[in-house]
Design goal:
Structural class: alpha/beta
Shape: globular
CATH topology: Metallo-beta-lactamase, Chain A
CATH superfamily: Ribonuclease Z/Hydroxyacylglutathione hydrolase-like
Order of helices and strands: EEEHEHEHEHHEEEEEHHEE
Number of helices: 7
Bound molecules: zinc ion
CATH architecture: 4-Layer Sandwich
Largest sheet: 7 strands, mixed
Length: 223
């Protein structure tokens, strides 16, 4: 079974370095139903204007690959920042897989965003650690960027793995280059918990993934 991964360009926003960063979601085409990893940008107006977002609806982005929201059987949020879960409401029929620790963090740290997104009624499937979501599609915990961050590993039969890294590394540079002591040189927001973040990075490198896909960078890295 070969699992195809399609990248969606969902938005552009001003990144921590002042440059324009893309926001990607990823569709995993699976015989058990398509899975969407991260849904793009949404949130209260004051939050979006702060980030100077050029947005695109998830439905428009899906139309670009010949799909509609109804074709998405499940959603995986790598974490609950506004540029990764902002359009979850477009998929009310789809269970949303997120780490329990991440939902708790969002409710603690970002109550305004949680209110806007209507998290109380969201169809969350809460995870406590690594889990297989569909045959060949797993999540692994990669805390550090946020307390409950997870990344997605896609394994096709006979092929090397794809790693959908979320914000565990914003760009290939953070994935490749060791930062200075205590995270010196990392972009703002990359590592809320630097020790945990380093551990997650080591864990991901140990996977030996054939391809690493970034939410905020167009390059695809090869391990
Ligand atoms: Zn983030």
């Amino acid at each position: 079974m070969t699992l195809e991964i399609r990248r969606l360009h969902l938005a552009a926003l001003r990144g921590p370095d002042g440059g324009e960063w893309p926001v990607h979601g990823f569709v995993i085409i699976h015989p058990g139903g398509a899975a969407l990893v991260d849904t793009g940008v949404g949130g209260p107006d004051e939050l979006l204007s702060d980030w100077r977002v050029v947005n695109r609806t998830a439905a428009d982005a899906l139309a670009g690959i010949g799909m509609t929201p109804a074709d998405v059987g499940l959603v995986i949020n790598t974490h609950l920042h506004f540029d990764h879960c902002g359009q979850n409401a477009v998929f009310p029929h789809a269970p949303v897989y997120v780490q329990r620790a991440e939902l708790a963090r969002a409710q603690r740290e970002e109550p305004q965003l949680c209110d806007w997104l209507g998290f109380m009624n969201a169809p969350f499937e809460l995870l406590d650690g690594d889990a297989e979501i569909l045959p060949g599609v797993s999540v692994i915990t990669t805390p550090g960027h946020t307390a409950g961050h997870q990344s997605v590993v896609v394994r096709s039969a006979g092929g090397s793995a794809d790693l959908l890294i979320g914000d565990a590394a914003y760009t290939p540079r953070q994935y490749r280059q060791p930062p200075g002591p205590d995270g010196a040189g990392l972009p703002d927001g990359q590592a809320a918990d630097f020790t945990a973040w380093q551990g997650s990075l080591a864990r991901m490198h140990a996977l030996g993934a054939g391809r690493v896909h970034f939410c905020h960078h167009t390059a695809i890295e090869h391990d």
